[in-house]
Design goal:
The chain is mostly helical. The chain is 93% helix and 0% strand. The longest helix is centred in the middle third of the chain and has 141 residues, at 8-148.
């Protein structure tokens, strides 16, 4: 550069530098626009993800509430099963006691039948003896009546 006059080469160099700077600025603007669009897309995606997370949290809360209810129902069912088991054990004891009472009654009945049969058999023997005695007495009475005769 001499005395404030710009040479043609220097002018061309400045022109190329300005064109390069303009090109770079346009490229930077395009990249900035793309970045802005990407940021907008990302913001929408983040908003959608945030809404999805909120829905998932709400769903998780509902699921937890259902699990809590299910746990309570399971506890009540277990209590009912425990009560039924106790009743079944009590019923089983009553059944066993009734079975023992029935066996005892059966033994007493068998003993009664045996004693009744023994007594009946004894009475039958006595009745036969009494019938024999009665027949002999009738014979004796007949004999005495004949011996005494009609005339006396």
């Amino acid at each position: 550069m001499s005395n404030g006059v710009v040479s043609r080469d220097e002018f061309e160099t400045v022109k190329q530098l300005l064109a390069s700077a303009a090109s770079y600025a346009e490229s930077a603007n395009r990249q900035s626009d793309r970045n802005t669009a990407l940021i907008a897309d990302n913001s929408q995606n983040i908003a959608a993800l945030s809404a999805g997370i909120s829905e998932l949290k709400a769903s998780q809360d509902r699921t937890q509430q259902q699990l809590d209810l299910l746990g309570e129902r399971q506890d009540r069912t277990q209590q009912q099963l425990d009560a039924l088991s106790e009743r079944q054990a009590s019923s089983q004891q009553q059944i066993e006691a009734l079975g023992e009472q029935q066996r005892s009654t059966q033994r007493q009945l068998e003993s009664f039948i045996f004693e009744s049969q023994r007594l009946m058999s004894g009475h039958a023997e006595r009745i036969q003896k009494l019938e024999g005695i009665s027949e002999r007495l009738e014979g004796i009475l007949s004999y005495l009546v004949r011996k005494e005769g009609p005339g006396e």
